Every structure is written in C-alpha cells, then in structure tokens.
Amino acid sequence: MIEDVDRPGFFKDYHRAVRKATTNDQFNEFSKLKTDEERVRFCFNLPAIHDIDIKPYFKGKSEKEALDKKEAGNRCFGRKNNIEALKLYSQAVVKAPVPSGKYWKLIKECADPKKMTLYAICLANRSAALYHLREYRYCVKDIDEALEHHYPRELKYKLFKRKARLMSHMKQHIEARDAFRQALKWLDWAKMEREKRIDIQTELQKWLKLYETGKVVKNLDIPESLTEPSLMVPVLTDGSNELFPSLSKKVEVHYDNNMGRFAVALEDIEPGETLVTELPYSSVLNREEYGTHCQKCFKITKAPIPCKKCSSVLFCSAECRQASLFHTIECPILDLLVGSGMSINCFLAFRALTQSPLSFFLNLRDKLTEENPEETANSKEVYDPTDFLRFYRLVCHSQHRTPEDFFHRTIMVCFWLKALKKTKFFEGKGSGSSDKISDVEAFIGGLLLRFLQLIQFNAHEVSEFMLKAPKTLDESKNESLGAAIYPTLALFNHSCHSAQVRYFTGIQVVTKSIRNIKKGELVPENYGQSFTCKDRSNRRMELADRYWFECNCEACQNDWPLYKNMNNTSMKFKCTKCQTVLPINPETHLMPVAKCEKCGEHTNIMGTLKNLQNTEQTFKGACKEMEAFNLEKAESLLVENLKQLETSLYPPYRDYHLTQEAYMKTV
C-alpha cells in the first residue's frame, strides 16, 4: 500500500480558502454536475480559484557552485581520493549551466568560454575519476557527453586518448582505433611545447600502427568485470498468456458483479513460479530520491546526468534524459508542485498526463468511453499495459464519491491547469489567459480529474531492496522509491493472505507465488499488510478507508492470529486422501494416526510430524545459505520447504509463514 499522505505545503490553505468562498448555492450546483469536464469548468470559473499567483519556480543552474565543486573535486583527485572526487565532480556537473538549444548555437563564437565549456569540463574531470575507479562504462558516457557540449578543442585530444584506452581495455578495438585517430587529429589544436607535442604524437601513432598493420580489427565481448550487472527479469512460468502478455499462461482474468475483474489460476500453481512481469504505464519517483535515483528508470545514479535547465532532478544517462518528455513540461514548475504539498498519488496522476504531448490526448478524444469490465475479461483483444485506454478504463468508483471528494480533487486539478499554462504543454491551444479556460484546457482538466480518481484504487508502491552492507542480508529492508500504475497487476484482487510476493527490477514489477494455488482458485495479491503483522480490525479499517471495501478473505473470515501469537497447540493437518482439515494438538494427541470424519481415511500424524522436523533442517540450511549470500541456493531450499509444508498442513502455521518471509528476501 502506498503511504499517500499530504506533505506540508500551500495547497491545503488554498483549498480551504476556495471552499470557504464557495456559497451553498454554488456548491449545490456543483454537486449536481455529471461529468469531470463540467466539474473542472465550474470550479475554474470560481473567482477564488484565481486568488493565487502561479509562477514558474525551479532550482536553476549556478556557475559559482559548479566552479567551487569542480575545484574541490580537483583537490581530492590530486590526493587520489577518487571516490570523494567523483561525488564532488557529480555535484559540479549538476550545477553547471548546460550549453544547449538555438540560443547557445547563436552565441557560441562570442560567449564567455568558461561558461560555455564549464559543463563539459566538469564531465571530463569526472571521467578521469571514473577511469581510475574502473567504472569504464560511465567514463565513456561522460566523455561522449562532454564532446557533445563544447569541450575546448585544444583539450579534445586528451578525451579521445582516454576513450581510446578505455575501449582497448574493454576489447572494443574498432572504437579504440577510431578514438586514437581522433586524438591524433585534435592534437593539432593543443597548446603545448613542440617537443611535448611530438612525444604525444609518437605515442598515438605507435598505438595506431598496432591497430592498422595488425590482423583484422574487430570488437570482442566486453569482459564481465567491466560491465554493469544487468537487471535480471525472470521468465514467466510456462510462458506468456496470449491475451494478457504480462501474465503467466497459468493465470487468466475473470469477472463477476461482486468481485469485478480478478485473476484466477488456469492450472495448479506451486511456490516459486513467476506469475507477473510488467513495466508501468506511468511512474513517479519520491521527492526524497531525486538526488540519488534516475527520474526515468529509478536506477541509482553512479554518475548522474542532469536536466539541461534545472538542478533538481537526475538521470542515469543521456538516453533516459532524452526519453523523459514529462520533465520538459514539469521542469519550470517542479518546485511549485513540490511546494504545494501534493501527495505521491497526485504526482502520479500529473505524470500520466505530462509523459505524453497534448496531441496524443486530442487524437484519442473520441475513444474515451467507459468500458464494461466484463468485456475486458471476456475479450479476445490483447490487453496491452502500455495502451492509454487500458489505463484510462481502470476502475474509478465515481458513483460512490461525495461532492466534497469531487470538489477537493477538482480544486487540485484547477491548480494544475493554472501551472500547466506556464509551460509549453498546451502548444498554443490554451486560452492564453490565466483566469479563463478553453475547451482544450477543460478537456485536459477532465482527464486529470479522472486520473486522480482511478489512481486511488490502482496505484502500486515501487520499492527497492536495500542491503546495509555488501553480500549480507542482515538489517536489509525494502525502501519506498515511488509509485506506478501497472494496468495488468491492477486487475488482481486482495487477500490478507497473499498468494504472491511482489518485487522490482528498476521500475519493472515481478511477482512470484509463495503458496500453492489450485486450478480455478483466486490468485490474490496484498494491498496493505499481511495478517501476520496487523490485526483484522486495523487491516479492515485501512482497506475500507483507502479502497472502499470490507475484506472477507480467509484470514479475515477466520480471524487468523498475528505471527507473534501463533503456536503449535492447534495445527491444521491435511487428510492424505480428501485434504479435509484435521485440527490436532500434537501435545495432547497420543495416537500415531488421525481418522478423517469426512472420508474415514487414517492419516499418519507421527509421519507428518517427522516430516515437519525435516523441514526445520531444510530451513536452517536455507538460512546458512542466506548468511553466505548464496541467494539462488537459499531460494531453492525455501521453495522446497514451502512445498513440503504445503503437503502436510494448512495455514496459519508459524514455520510456514517464517519460510514465506525468508523467501521474500531471496527473490
């Protein structure tokens, strides 16, 4: 569950002032409106809506700060403190003005050379620190970025020479040869004594001769030690569902009037099977992670690439920056949005708009109709999670909302519209006035209001499993990174006794089964907290408050105990023939067998207890593997343990849930 709390900010006072200025007659008129677009038009025309001065507000660049950080980095680099130098150079890169756009091209010849080249020089200096830290991949990216942003021509030979050596280390011999050629070319511009120039020229020609007179030059595989570990996404068990490509073939989607759309096992599912892998339709990073993670893919930024205009956000690469259309809209108003105190869900609703241009939404305008959820479950069309219409048609429960709920959300939308007017989003198709609303703006406002409603019920928290120290799970924990919309995963129903564990590789979600699910049974996930750590009344209260339903899962119906209150005095053994529950207290049950009242079969209780002792040993073995950080081996043992426990007992059972918790740490 996303902790969707409002932060300190001015929006609460703004909303309170608008609500206070709204007369009873006006509010009654608002409460009778039927569409989101009508609600937005009505509120935008309230005089109090415009009692706020909206201006672009963001953290810009600072030449002075960049120079100070660069010089501090130079001092650390001189002392061979490359880690601290990398940190300082990165801060300089973020703060340095970035030469870009038509304006920079026009003044290139007459601009202050220091300001023109500062960003590139900071990148080049950082590439030197990265080179010594053997972070070759990032080093090459910094060199390329510096060369694209007016690095001084008299120094270019140095960068090409460094790149050539990098490529040689990485066995990319074609690129190495080409970089040596470029180094030799740009050496003519270098400002140095003739003797030094000849020495460098001789060295470069020597390297070139090795490449040009030797055998056929070709690239080889980059040594594994020099590559960045890739994010491993497991393959869906039994392959992908033809109609729901984010799902395993073992899972399908059903519908009924009471449960809505929900996931069901098409075949028997065992612990450890991959059920879902899905990229989000939209995602947003927590404000606290802006300084450490990429805005686009949520990866930790070892050598961050900044926005070209602000110093608030980071990207892991120029490619992620280029792909982040949303930030070109959000950039000039980002700190305004943060200052409003918007919740993470509000940011996600806003991001669902800014990630696409205005023309995208206008082209879909005629297709924005309500969808019968039953048709989705029974349709033969592929459910594409990247399709806007799949996102748009997720449940909103608008029919259950109060006028106050609608009013509060609509005021937020009006604030957003006023802020968007200060950006390039409306592409000249807006009203051109801060206190008037055009048809296009009202349409976009209606979309935003719908996004706010559907995200309440369909958003997922994106988290990162953090190790306190390398290669140990001691004190490790999941930390929230942000929020995202996964249109397929959003179709799963809830249970306090979830059938799967959810984890993330970057922004891609993966779920794996953590218990047996029989063919035809519900495949639930968990929207909040498990029954093992929160009592039924509090679970139900939180779910009713956020998702508007009372949970009647097995754990709630039977009021299963918290993990800390579980004991072995009452265990639910399985009849070996018909699987009926055999409630037995092992401490008082003196007979080696138990008779099933349903089928009359005798189940060997002593044999089952011996099997449970074996699972204890397997669990201890898994724990040792976890301590040694052999996670694949530990995962295999824990899956084996879950299967063994499933053959003998029904939950709740202390060792069973302890094994599930351990398994969640290994995936």
UniProtKB/TrEMBL annotation:
Keyword S-adenosyl-L-methionine: yes
Record CDD domains: SET_SMYD4
Domain SET span(s) in chain numbering: 249-528
GO cellular component: cytoplasm; nucleus
The keyword Plastid belongs to this UniProt entry's keyword annotation: no
GO MF annotations, alphabetized: histone deacetylase binding; N-methyltransferase activity; protein methyltransferase activity; S-adenosylmethionine-dependent methyltransferase activity; zinc ion binding
GO BP terms in the entry: methylation
Highest taxon above the source species: Eukaryota
Protein's recorded name: Protein-lysine N-methyltransferase SMYD4
